[in-house]
């Protein structure tokens, strides 16, 4: 299993600066999943203090990439081939947690899903699914 500290270092060293600017923290790594979270700050809020959809989708995509790394047993290249985010409720609170997991892993494709939860209310605010290509 990938250590949380190792995953956080990989995130910091390999992801785009605008993704890092959201303040993503890796909070859990498992055999087939990952949990990441971001603080809710004015930087990602829109009118009404609701987290913008772009930030939620980016967090979901990033968390699912880390779920792929868990399933692959290390940091191997993956490419998002599709991403669908369903917005369930306005995201407000202190932070957003995204729990992602691999639902099927093939030789060249990995299918994932994620649930985004507003904290501290523990209310689901979005769900996402994605397919990732694993190059040879």
Overview of the molecule:
This protein has 136 residues and is an alpha+beta fold. It has one domain (4-133): Hotdog Thioesterase (Thiol Ester Dehydrase, Chain A). The chain has helices at residues 4-14, 17-20, 53-72; strands at 25-29, 33-39, 79-87, 95-105, 109-119, 123-133. The longest helix has 20 residues, at 53-72. The chain is globular, with a radius of gyration of 14 Å. The relative contact order is 0.20.
Keywords:
3 helices; 26% helix; Thiol Ester Dehydrase, Chain A; 6 strands; 136 residues; six-stranded antiparallel sheet; alpha+beta
Q: What structural class should be given to the helix and strand makeup?
A: alpha+beta
Report the biggest beta sheet as strand number plus sense, adding barrel if it closes.
6 strands, antiparallel
Based on DSSP secondary structure assignment, what is the total number of beta strands? 6
CATH architecture designation: Roll
Strand content: 35-45%
Shape: globular
Q: How large, in whole angstroms, is the Cα Rg?
A: 14 Å
CATH class: Alpha Beta
- Described by its quaternary structure, the protein is single chain
Number of structurally distinct domains: 1
Give the terminus-to-terminus CA distance.
22 Å
Query: How would you state the average pLDDT, rounded?
Result: 97
Please give the count of helices.
3
């Amino acid at each position: 299993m990938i250590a949380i500290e190792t995953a956080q270092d990989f995130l910091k060293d390999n992801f785009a600066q605008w993704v890092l600017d959201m303040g993503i923290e890796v909070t859990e790594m498992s055999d087939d999943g990952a949990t990441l979270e971001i603080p809710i700050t004015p930087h990602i809020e829109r009118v009404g203090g609701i987290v913008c959809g772009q930030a939620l989708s980016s967090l979901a995509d990033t968390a699912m990439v880390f779920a792929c790394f868990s399933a692959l047993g290390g940091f191997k290249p993956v490419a998002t081939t599709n991403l669908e985010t369903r917005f369930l409720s306005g995201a407000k609170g202190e932070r957003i947690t995204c729990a992602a997991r691999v639902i099927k892993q093939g030789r060249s494709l990995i299918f994932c899903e994620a649930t985004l939860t507003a904290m501290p209310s523990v209310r689901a605010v979005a769900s996402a699914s994605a397919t990732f290509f694993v190059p040879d």
